[in-house]
Amino acid sequence: MTTGSDINFSAQAQTLTFAPEGTRKSIAAHPERPGISLVIPVYNEEENVELLYQKILDAAEKLNRTWEVVLVDDGSKDKSFEKLEKIALKDSRVKLVRFVRNFGQTAALAAGIDHANGSIIIPMDADLQNDPADIQMLIEKLEEGYDCVSGWRKNRKDGLVLRLIPSWTANKIISVISGVSLHDYGCSLKAYRREVLEGVRLYGEMHRFVPIYASWMGAKVTEMPVNHYARQFGQSKYGINRTVKVVLDLITIKFMSSYLTKPIYIFGSAGLWSLAACAASFTWMCILKYGYDTSFIETPLPVLVSMFFMVGIQLILMGLLAEILVRTYHESQDKRIYTVKKKVNLD
C-alpha cells in the first residue's frame, strides 16, 4: 500500500512513448482494454454514489466508446461500499476495490490507476462536485494533441476564506516553483493518456502534481474550464490544513525532480555557505579582538563560528552519504537516470 511523501522520480528503465507533434489526433483503444477508465476514490459518500453512477451512465451514452469505472472505497465507515457492491454486481463495467482502512485520496487514486485498463484514464471525485458530462470535452481536448488535460474549476462553488483564497495562493506558488502554469491543481477531474501515468508512483498528497511530473517528462499539458457544483450531501474531506501539506509536498517534489541524482549539490552548497558564514564570523571576531580590543567572550561570535563550522561539515557529509545512497539505489535495481522518449531501429 502506498504511503510516504513524494512521487517516485527514479526515472525507471522505461520508454515513455509520447507521440510526436501532429500525430496525436486520435486515441485508439487497445483491442483488449476499454477506451476510457474513470477512477473514483470514495470515502463516506453513501448519499452520492447511486446518483453518481446514474450521472456516469448518462454521460457515457454520449461518448461512443467502451468504458469502465474503477471505484476505490477508501475505508468508508458508512454504507458506501454496500451500495457500490450492489452497483458492481449488476454492471460488469463497474470495478470495485476496497481498502482495509482509510489511506487517503492519493493512495485511493494510485490503486484505481493500478487497476484501470483504459487507453484514457480520467480521475474524478465522488461528491458530485465534478460533472461527468465534462468527460466528453476533456477527451476532445486530449485528441487535439495533448497528453494531459487538467480541469479548471473557474466558477468554483466553495467558501471564500477557508477554501478559495488558500487554493488561489497555493496554485500560484505551485505554478511559479514548478514552471507549469495551471489555475487549479486541486481539481480532481483530469484526463490522461495511459502512457503518461505508466511508471508514476504516487505518495503523500502528490496526486495533484501529476501534470507537473508529466510536463517535466516531456508530456504536453493544458487545462480547460469544467463545471463545479456545491456539495449537496455529506461533508467535505478537505480543510485549510491541506494547504500546509501541499506546500511541503511541493518542496519534496522540487527536490526529487532537481536533485534526486545529485543530492551533493544542495547539501554541499548549504554546507559551503555555512562554512563561509563560519569564516566571516571568525574574521570579524579577530578584527574585534585585535583591532578594537574586544574579548572573544564579550560577543556570541565564538559560538557562531563553532556552530557554522559543525553544521557545514555535517551538511557536506550528508551530501556524500546521499550520493552513496542514490548510486546504490539506481545500480542495485538497474534503474536509469534518464528516460527515453523514442527509439528508431532499436528493439
Tell me what portion of residues adopts beta-strand conformation. 5-15%
Helix content: 40-55%
Domains counted in the coordinates: how many?
A: 2
What's the rounded overall pLDDT mean?
A: 81
Biggest sheet strand line-up: 3-2-1-4-6-5-7
What does the main sheet amount to?
A: 7 strands, mixed
Q: Care to count the β-strands? A: 7
Q: Give the overall shape.
A: elongated
Please trace the helix and strand order, writing H or E for each element.
EHEHEHEHEHEHHEHHH
Cα end-to-end separation: 33 Å
Question: Under the CATH scheme, which architecture of the largest domain would be assigned?
Answer: Alpha-Beta Complex
Low-confidence stretches: 1-17, 19-23
CATH class designation of the largest domain: Alpha Beta
Over all CA atoms, what is the radius of gyration?
Answer: 25 Å
CATH topology of the largest domain: Spore Coat Polysaccharide Biosynthesis Protein SpsA, Chain A
Q: Can I get a quick summary?
A:
With 347 residues, this protein is α/β, with parallel strands linked by helices. The protein has helices at residues 49-60, 80-90, 105-115, 135-142, 160-178, 194-197, 210-216, 241-259, 263-291, 301-332; strands spanning 36-42, 67-73, 94-98, 120-123, 148-152, 190-193, 221-225. The chain folds into 2 domains: 36-258, Spore Coat Polysaccharide Biosynthesis Protein SpsA, Chain A, CATH 3.90.550; 263-332.
